[in-house]
Amino acid sequence: MTIKIALVQLRVVDSKEKNLKNAIDLIRIAKKEKDANVVVLPECFNAPYTADSLRDVAEEIPSGETCRALSNAARDFGVHVVGGSIVESFSGRLYNTCTVWGPEGDLVATYRKVHLCDSSLSGKMTVAETKLFTAGSKYATFTVGETRIGLGICWDMRFAEFATAYRTMGCDLLIYPAVCDVPTGEQHWELLAKARALDNQTFVAFCSPARDTHAKLIPYGHSLVVDPWGRVIQRATEFQEIVVADLVLKELSDVRRRIPVFEQKRTDLYELKVDCTA
Hints:
278 residues; alpha/beta; 7-stranded mixed sheet; 6-stranded mixed sheet; 7 helices
């Protein structure tokens, strides 16, 4: 089996309505013209990444405007849509939340960002996430055919144990919608994607917004897909575009047979205990 994944690296503007229209248009192109069966949007794709803008677009899941638009797009185009992330309003709290919509328009997964970022390599903090968001506390997976897919958001990519927990659950693909600034991206973006893929012998996809040099936080861009050998098989530029990669799933069994590190772990010395219900 092959999964054709499309990373939609859209340019975020200061209009929720325009961002949603752009996202739906690009989802349509990814499915109708590029024949993707999984389409991924970036983190916080419906508003600029500033505290005020993010608060302004907060909505409930699944009844909010963005959720309805993504549900309709998934159903109309018959595709799985990984809705990047949006700001979820729930019981007086805000969460940075990824929703996944099935080809029938149904909500098949919801993931609240677990690791919140209060750091900036450039020395300039744009959003102190712990002051804005409440951290999630659960893993989230969904399946396409027989392939189990694990979800993270941006800063989650830095935590190796988190990715390995997903591999322990049987995931073969890890998807991280993300907003990464340029200084951080230049040093760590590709390195982190390769590390998570190589460590866990999975496919890994990072999806960024397009670069906007006028934004308070300038996104790095360069959305990419890495295979279980740690090789970049698709990479975007910094501009708005759709990148598509064919994930040849038989490569998973090949790399795991030839480099059987998960069978060689010393569980007498160390063990990752995963509570999927936490």
